[in-house]
């Protein structure tokens, strides 16, 4: 089962890497990957310096 999760993770990570840049990888590990936009933006009246775009994580149970 672990091999299947790792294979799926690697395939999805490869697809998401195409968006780097303009997005930046905040976490880039063997079991966790996160892409974020690092631009100042206002969402619903609140100023943000970064916005989450996509992420992957391998956990032991699922």
Brief characterization of the structure:
This protein is of the alpha+beta class. It has one helix at residues 2-17; strands spanning 24-28, 32-37, 41-43, 46-48, 51-57.
Describe the structure.
The protein has one domain. 26% of the residues lie in helices and 39% in strands. It has one helix and five strands. The strands form two sheets. It has a three-stranded antiparallel β-sheet with strand order 1-2-5, with helices on one face. The protein has a two-stranded antiparallel ribbon with strand order 3-4. β1 and β2 form a beta hairpin. It is elongated and about 45 Å long. It starts with a helix and ends in a 5-residue tail after the last strand.
- Helix fraction by DSSP (H/I, runs of at least 4): 25-40%
pLDDT averaged over residues: 88
Number of helices: 1
Strand order of the largest sheet: 1-2-5
Question: Tags for this entry?
Answer:
single chain; 62 residues; alpha+beta; three-stranded antiparallel sheet; two-stranded antiparallel sheet; 1 helix; 5 strands; 26% helix; 39% strand
Write the layout of secondary structure elements.
Blueprint: H1 2-17, E1 24-28, E2 32-37, E3 41-43, E4 46-48, E5 51-57
Antiparallel strand pairs: 1-2, 2-5, 3-4
